[in-house]
Amino acid sequence: PLVIDADGLNLLALSDEYTKNVVRELPHCILTPHPGEACRLLNQSIKDVEADRYTSCQTLALSFKATSLLKGAGTVICTNSHKVDDRQLFWVCDGGNPGMATAGMGDLLTGIIGSLSAQGIPPQQATIYGVCAHAEAADKVAREYGERGMIASDLLPALRATINSL
User: Fold this and answer.
1) Most buried of the four, 29, 81, 85, 156, by CB within 10 Å?
2) Residue 114: which pLDDT band, with cuts at 50, 70 and 90?
3) CATH number, domain containing residue 96
């Protein structure tokens, strides 16, 4: 399994077609962009990405033949393969809170998804579980301590409890 985040996404956006095709051939690839990274991958403005988050996430999933998530309020998850009646399936996480908009939160999410993937959980499930567990842990912390001043390491005790309850 391979999870591509942060500068990996920025390098992918700048890569030639050969490199992009190598990523497309990976059987268990997960892309985890925030809107700024997605706009570089899609060659669009942030405004365009945010105007239609579903299409943006779907385009990433189909373009790279990967599971893709678009981080933000209402994180959207899409795969290149799950369809019903020729319609793409999306998963949306409505958990989480503004306190998560701090340095390191995306790194923590990537680590969660990567660790679930490394345990053999399929990319789509690892991504959905990871996003939801991350959001639930952040919501537990916010209920107990508030959103202000939240940092990624604050989530670890709540995350452990959340993951162990799956």
Assistant:
1) 29
2) very high
3) 3.40.1190.20
Helices 53-64 and 17-24 pack at an angle, to 10 degrees, of 90
Rounded Cα distance, 146 and 126, in Å: 28
> How many structural domains is the chain composed of?
1
Place of tokens 């639930």: 136
- Domain span at residue 95 reads 2-164
- pTM for the whole structure: 0.94
3-state secondary structure the chain: CEEECCHHHHHHHHCCHHHHHHHHCCCCEEECCCHHHHHHHHCCCHHHHHHCHHHHHHHHHHHHCCEEEECCCCEEEEEEEEEECCEEEEEEECCCCHHHCCCCHHHHHHHHHHHHHHCCCCHHHHHHHHHHHHHHHHHHHHHHHCCCCCCHHHHHHHHHHHHHCC
pLDDT tens-digit readout, 73-108: 999 999 887 666 667 789 999 999 999 999 999 999
**Mean pLDDT for all residues in the chain:** 94
